[in-house]
Design brief:
By secondary structure, the chain is of the alpha/beta class. It folds into 2 domains: about 85-240 and about 410-425, Glycogen Phosphorylase B (Rossmann fold), CATH 3.40.50.2000; about 245-405, Glycogen Phosphorylase B (Rossmann fold), CATH 3.40.50.2000. It contains 15 helices and 16 strands. The strands form 3 sheets. It has a 7-stranded parallel beta sheet with strand order 6-5-4-7-8-9-10, with helices on both faces. A 6-stranded parallel beta sheet has the order 13-12-11-14-15-16, sandwiched between helices. Helix 3 links the parallel strand 4 and strand 5. Helix 3 crosses helix 15 and helix 6 packs parallel to helix 7. The longest helix has 19 residues, at about 1-20. The N and C termini lie far apart (about 65 Å). The relative contact order is 0.09. The model is unreliable at about 10-75 (pLDDT under 50).
């Protein structure tokens, strides 16, 4: 009877004993399954464990490579039976948004992580994706002394990227180019991780010229680049699914009897274009509605009727659906998006003295297709720009007439196919 009583007592108190025991050890042992969900790190150990999401708060666990600050909320889901793709790219949103569009398409098929700088890309990557920061430095043309630190920062960044990749153990690195992605691709090559890269411009940037030597395949927006190397695959630009829809923004109300001018100064803000546009806004509003993306680095303009000024807009596809024509730089992202949405473009490219000349080449390409007009910034004044805008719109029908004869390409699915091929090839 005594033994029976002891056994019954132990049986009844076992759940309490189990609850007070270290769940960080017992739960993985008793509930480890192939599709278990959450990767975290215990504060006392760097060893990653798989635990139940509801127990994260119990012992103050940190999600792997991502701060855990939410209360009883799943912020990172990892399926350990799926392969991991590490995305990289940053500096401007042109090197970030295509990565987000691919993640949208690939969710549920692969795990994601991101390696980038402490810049604009960090603010745009979803919080449920592990983000690892590396140092980054950009080549500043014409400033020799500013560039002396590049080799030292690059070496530091390569070691940081290599350490992150060893922890992440991705099956593939997808690089959207730019100076942020270079150390990641160098580290990936050192670790024998396949690299799929993407170039958006009409000519290769400095980083992608180097990455081309390191990568397995390089996707490009323009067919003329395909002949330069056997690694290069013409896919076209990467757009979100929303770019194929005609939804209009609910939060933007404009005069439906006026045409709408979309002024795009980039994610960081083209200061010179903002300075040219600001004095003529009131004059332009007598003829047009204006949506002005002035960039996060600039001061917000004063409010006006039929004038919407924003530092950035998350769903650009909707803005394009209300725009009749566009004024802005000719960065690869913006110009290819406007081309895909069939919006006539008045382009003011960064000149060769301020860049490697890629924007001039982009603008000339679209001007040759008769869907855009190139304006050189040199000697451009606010009054001259106002005349150019009015003149451009007076000829808008001819620009619109060019679009039906041109092929629109969304390379998202083709890039997704290349990702699957490379991962299957690695498995084989």
């Amino acid at each position: 009877m005594l033994r029976a009583a002891i056994l019954i007592g132990l049986f009844n108190t076992f759940p309490l004993l189990l609850a007070n025991f270290s769940w960080s050890i017992l739960y993985p042992l008793t509930h480890f399954v192939k599709n278990a969900s959450i990767f975290v790190q215990n504060e006392r150990s760097a060893r990653p464990r798989v635990i139940h999401a509801q127990n994260c708060q119990r012992f103050k666990a940190d999600v792997r490579f991502l701060e855990y600050k939410t209360n009883k909320k799943i912020i990172l889901t990892y399926n350990i039976s799926m392969k991991t793709i590490c995305f990289t790219g940053g500096g401007t949103l042109g090197h970030v948004m295509p990565n987000l569009y691919l993640m949208e398409e690939l969710r549920g098929k692969y795990n994601f992580c991101y390696i980038g700088s402490d810049g604009i890309e960090k603010t745009k990557i979803p919080k449920d994706i592990p983000y690892h920061i590396i140092p980054a430095v950009k080549l500043v043309r014409g400033k020799i002394f500013s560039n002396l630190k590049i080799p030292f920062v690059l070496i530091k960044a390569i070691f940081a990227a290599k350490a992150a990749l060893k922890k992440i153990s991705p099956a593939l690195v997808f690089s959207k180019g730019g100076y942020v992605s270079l150390p990641v691709c160098i580290a990936a090559r050192m670790l024998h991780i396949p690299i799929l890269a993407h170039e958006s411009d009409y000519s290769f940037g400095l980083a992608n010229k180097i990455i081309l030597k390191l990568c397995t395949k390089m996707c490009v927006n323009f067919k003329n680049l395909e002949k330069k190397n056997k690694k290069i695959v013409y896919t076209g630009p990467i757009f979100a699914k929303s770019f194929d829809k005609l939804d209009k923004p609910n939060d933007i109300k404009l005069n439906t009897n006026k045409p709408t001018l979309l002024i795009l100064c980039g994610s960081l803000g083209a200061k010179s274009i903002n300075e040219l546009v600001t004095p003529i806004i009131d004059d332009l509003l007598t003829r047009f509605n204006i949506i002005h993306i002035y960039g996060k680095n600039n001061t917000p303009p004063p409010t006006r009727t039929n004038y919407i000024a924003l530092p950035f807009y998350d769903d650009m596809a909707k803005l394009y659906n209300v725009a009749d024509f566009m004024l802005g730089r000719s960065g690869a992202g913006v110009s290819s998006e406007c081309f895909y949405k069939q919006i006539p473009m008045l382009l003011i490219p960064l000149e060769n003295s301020s860049s490697r000349g890629d924007q001039v080449l982009n603008a000339k390409y679209y001007a040759d297709l008769k869907v855009a007009k190139l304006i050189h910034q040199q000697n451009l004044t606010p009054e001259k720009l106002k005349d150019e805008i009015i003149s451009f719109y007076s000829d808008i029908k001819n620009y619109n007439a060019s679009y039906p004869h041109l092929q629109k390409i969304n390379g998202r699915q083709k890039v997704v196919g290349l990702i699957a091929d490379l991962l299957n090839k690695k498995s084989g």
